[in-house]
Specification:
By secondary structure, the chain is an all-alpha fold. It has helices spanning 9-25, 36-51, 55-68, 77-89, 96-116, 121-136, 140-153, 159-172, 179-193, 198-207, 211-223, 229-241, 245-258, 263-275, 279-292, 297-309, 313-326, 331-346, 354-370. Among the domains are: 1-116, no CATH class; 118-126 and 133-207, Serine Threonine Protein Phosphatase 5, Tetratricopeptide repeat. The longest helix has 21 residues, at 96-116. 75% of the residues lie in helices and 0% in strands.
Length: 371
Amino acid sequence: MKTLYKIPGIIFLLIIVISSNVFAINKSINTENSDSLKLLETYSLFSEYHKNKDYASALPYGWEVLKINPEKFRKWIYYKMEDALWFVHDSTDVIPELKQSIQDTMLYLYDLAEQYYPEDKAYFESHRAFILEGWIHAPAEQIIAEYEKAIKHDKDLSSYYYNRLGQLYIKNQSDDNDYKTKALDLYTYLSEREPDTQQWSTELEGLVENIEQLVALKKKNWLNNKDDLSKAWKFSSMAMKAEDYEQAIEGLEFLVSKAPETINYWNQLQTAYQKTDQLNEAENALLKLIELDPDSKEHYFNLGIVYSDKGKYSLSRRNYLKASEVGGDWALPIFYEGYLYEKAAAQCKDGLDFEKKIIYQINHSKKFVHH
């Protein structure tokens, strides 16, 4: 919260008059004929008053700078002007009529900023949305559109503005719009981007009665735009989280068909196959992962588990040993190797398969040599 001081009414009125005049004549700006010395002097005065927090004195000089050349100091002046206008708007002795004038002037400042400093367009759009929401109380559709533009221009925008948009979606959702789906997408994105922020998971839980409903909504959202990989991934991820592996497989198989080199898609798919005992499919997925990412110890380890479940102990042992090698003498697969010998011996009937039992005893002894 900024510290406020009272601005004398006559000085503030002067600011508004000057601001209004600048607003009216700005279309006649001619940057080519600007007086460089005058521009530098004016900006210097503006900056000095701003630095001393004398915003009432700073604003007329700021508008004069923008009148002469709205590009010259664009990296600084629009933020400083915003700061000054925000301050006077919140001053304690500003009458409602002047507050309204400041609000309109602030929106105009953002128009200029977006035109002459588009590199930070998302910043100005998000702040315009905030003013439309908090100061002007514009229609929800107008505010939502402004927040959406800001996020479109900068996906890494502060979660503060994402959340304001999400709350607007929730408050204005109905059967006639898709705000609920948009809110789900928004908070799913935030929960993935900021997994340590419990608020985003809480918002998601509040939007649905249970996780199965959330999976169904994500699937519907994907099927409405079947070729959208991001929607397919959101559906698949949510299905995996809900342990609905059959549904997850549907989305993941689509993803690997469209992006066959994406390791994460294959990794999730092989997990879903294993969870549903589709061992042949899991084997093929892991072989593909090893082809794409041969330096990952986990792929060999998981393939060893699949071969063990299929009763192919020799292949399983080979992959456990490879996992240990790739992992720099990783101990876990050696531990699992020991189970292989026990499983092999358990399958031998008393009095039969004597040679297999002898092999088990030899290998069982070798297991301790690894350690």
